[in-house]
């Protein structure tokens, strides 16, 4: 029996490689002679660099760059096993967890460090890039990113504007003539699972600003600033990008990358392709996938959804093993829903559950008893091992 383990991280408790390792241990302990292939996954956010480097036997290069608050932080970029493709992960340079909760304010954060990382990689001779832009603390439209690559953003007095979200509305002139000319010879693929436009009710500020610390009155300020900034950049380039899907990703970082000619792709699919997941699924019997919490949002291109689709295409039966399952992934007897008794209750399924049941052989949560989220996260390793061992024990019956 061949089993592929292709899971995302359990955010805040286990990295994707750790999840794969613990599931593999459980399966080997039960099945013993099973053929296990681990492919740690990510969707462009935290863990993307680690997943891709590990899957391709690549290396990491330590760097020091401006962080989300423009202070210098230790980070890294990854070089994939092909020796020519570099992975830059925004979450490890300007990620939300890097900002203390009391200081979370997207008016004061910047993507400058991401541009610095790209420039350093170009200095080292690299021209092929994968940029993961999930998990950001920023809402600066990529102004800091572009500024670090040579662009100039000036106020009404002709003075440089500080490259943070709160200053977008003060920009009156954009000068892109100084952009690093090496970018023209670069190929940049952007890993993202966000399709939002830059501005408006579905834009970066309205949808993602509050989770980054923006107060209600600041959301409109940020949205107006992005609109002002984007209009000036687009006028300078003679092209429009702000309404394209993904322009609003990472507080407008998607917009800045589109302006440089980058292509935005499904983060999970990009990682899966770079890790050659399809080649491992060809002769697999099952593929185990999961994430910290699975709910209806998973169907918008997150790791388990993409892995399950790829598994089905190659004949590998998908099994979901996540930290927790959303309330609409529960199958209730109709008699319970109506308060009536019946010896033969008819199951009631949500539309979301129906989709999951068509995709997966079975759905599992590692939570085994009533517990708080903190308790579940603290005990994630033993809970995951136990749940994986139970799944493996059921699969062992199919071998007999």
TrEMBL record:
GO BP annotations listed: organic acid phosphorylation
Listed SUPFAM superfamilies: Glycerate kinase I
Domain of life from the UniProt record: Bacteria
Pfam families: Gly_kinase
Protein keywords: Kinase, Transferase
Molecular-function GO term, any one: glycerate kinase activity
The keyword Transferase is assigned to this record: yes
Family: Belongs to the glycerate kinase type-1 family.
UniProt cross-references to PANTHER family, sorted A to Z: GLYCERATE KINASE
Protein name: Glycerate kinase
């Amino acid at each position: 029996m061949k089993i592929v383990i292709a899971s995302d991280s359990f955010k805040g408790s286990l990295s994707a490689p750790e999840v794969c390792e613990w599931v593999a241990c459980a399966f080997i302990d039960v099945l013993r002679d099973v053929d296990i292939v681990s492919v740690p996954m990510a969707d462009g956010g935290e863990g993307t660099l680690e997943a891709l480097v590990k899957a391709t036997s690549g290396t990491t290069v330590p760097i020091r760059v401006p962080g989300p608050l423009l202070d210098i932080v230790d980070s890294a970029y990854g070089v994939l096993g092909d020796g020519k493709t570099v992975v830059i992960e925004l979450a490890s340079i300007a990620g939300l967890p890097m900002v203390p909760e009391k200081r979370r304010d997207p008016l004061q954060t910047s993507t400058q460090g991401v541009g610095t990382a790209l420039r350093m990689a170009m200095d080292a001779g690299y021209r092929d890039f994968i940029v993961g832009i999930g998990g950001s603390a920023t809402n600066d439209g990529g102004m800091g990113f572009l500024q670090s690559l040579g662009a100039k953003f000036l106020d009404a007095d002709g003075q440089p504007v500080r490259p943070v979200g709160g200053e977008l509305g003060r920009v009156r002139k954009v000068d892109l003539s100084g952009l690093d000319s090496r970018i023209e010879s670069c190929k940049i693929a952007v890993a993202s699972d966000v399709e939002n436009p830059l501005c408006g009710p579905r834009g970066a500020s309205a949808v993602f600003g509050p989770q980054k610390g923006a107060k209600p009155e600041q959301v409109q300020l940020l949205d107006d600033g992005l609109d002002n900034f984007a209009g000036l950049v687009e006028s300078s380039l003679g092209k429009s990008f702000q309404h394209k899907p993904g322009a609003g990703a990472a507080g407008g970082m998607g917009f800045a990358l589109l302006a440089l000619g980058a292509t935005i792709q499904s983060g999970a699919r990009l990682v899966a392709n770079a890790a050659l997941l399809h080649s491992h699924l060809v002769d697999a019997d099952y593929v185990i996938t999961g994430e910290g919490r699975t709910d209806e949002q998973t169907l918008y291109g997150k790791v388990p959804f993409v892995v399950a689709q790829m598994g089905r295409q190659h004949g590998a039966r998908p099994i979901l093993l996540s930290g927790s399952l959303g309330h609409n992934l529960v199958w209730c007897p109709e008699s319970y829903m109506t308060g009536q008794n019946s010896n033969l209750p008819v199951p009631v399924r949500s539309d979301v559950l129906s989709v999951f049941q068509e995709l997966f052989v079975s759905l599992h949560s590692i939570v085994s008893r009533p517990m708080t989220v903190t308790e579940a996260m603290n005990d994630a390793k033993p809970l995951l091992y136990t749940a994986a061992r139970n799944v493996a024990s059921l699969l062992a019956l199919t071998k007999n």
